[in-house]
Write a structure and sequence with these properties.
The protein has five helices and seven strands, in the order βαββααβαβββα. It is α+β, with helices and mostly antiparallel strands and 175 residues long. It has a three-stranded mixed sheet. Strands 1-7 form a two-stranded antiparallel sheet. A two-stranded antiparallel ribbon has the order 5-6. β5 and β6 form a beta hairpin. The chain is globular and about 45 Å long.
C-alpha cells in the first residue's frame, strides 16, 4: 500500500544505535493511544507516529521484539491502545516506545523532506525531480492506509494504477 517516489538510500545510513533507531514519516497523534497511556512513564510524552512507513535495522528492532513485548505487556497494550479498526499503528508505536527506541522523522533526517505521504494529500505539485507538498518540500512516498476501494481520481491514484498495471504485466511473465 506504498509507492516509493524518491531514492531512500541516504536515509539508511542515518540509522544509528542510541541516536536514530526508528525513522518515521511524520508525527501522528491519531489512532494510537487512548488517554490511559499517560499512566505509563515510557508512553507519557512519547512521539506518536504513523506506521505506514518506517526505517530501522533488524539489529535494533526485530519481529521477535514484537512477540516478546506483547507477551510481557499484553495487558498494558490492550489497556492503552486506541480502539477501532486500526490495529498496526498502536502496536508498532507501543513496541517502539516500550523498547525505548530513539525516534526521528524523515524531515529530521533529510533536509527538505516532507512528512506528507497520504494518498489524499492536497496542494501537491509534480516536478521533474518528483512530487512536492504544498510547502515545496519533497514527498518521498505515498501511502494508501487501510484502503477500502480502488484508488480513484486523487493526485497519486494514477501512479497506483500505473504501477498496478506494470506489476500485473510482470506477473504474466512468470505464469
Amino acid at each position: 500500500d506504498i509507492i516509493l517516489l524518491r531514492d531512500f538510500s541516504p536515509l539508511f545510513g542515518m540509522i544509528e544505535a542510541g541516536k536514530r533507531e526508528f525513522i518515521v514519516a511524520a508525527k501522528c497523534n491519531d489512532y494510537v493511544y487512548n488517554p490511559k497511556h499517560a499512566q505509563y512513564d515510557y508512553l507519557r510524552g512519547a512521539m506518536l507516529f504513523n506506521d505506514g512507513f518506517f526505517a530501522t535495522s533488524r539489529d535494533l528492532l526485530s519481529l521477535q521484539d514484537f512477540f516478546d513485548i506483547i507477551e510481557a505487556d499484553e495487558k498494558t497494550f490492550h489497556a492503552v491502545r486506541q480502539r477501532g479498526g486500526l490495529f498496526a499503528q498502536p502496536l508498532t508505536n507501543f513496541v517502539v516506545h516500550r523498547r525505548g527506541l530513539k525516534l526521528a522523522t524523515l524531515s529530521d533526517c533529510l533536509a527538505g523532506a516532507s512528512g506528507e505521504s497520504y494518498y489524499k494529500a492536497e496542494g501537491v505539485t509534480f516536478t521533474e525531480d518528483g512530487p512536492l507538498d504544498r510547502f515545496g518540500k519533497r514527498i518521498y512516498f505515498c501511502h494508501w492506509p487501510g484502503i477500502i476501494g480502488m484508488p480513484g481520481r486523487r493526485v497519486f491514484d494514477g501512479l497506483w494504477h500505473e504501477f498496478a498495471q506494470q506489476a500485473a504485466a510482470r506477473m504474466k511473465e512468470f505464469a
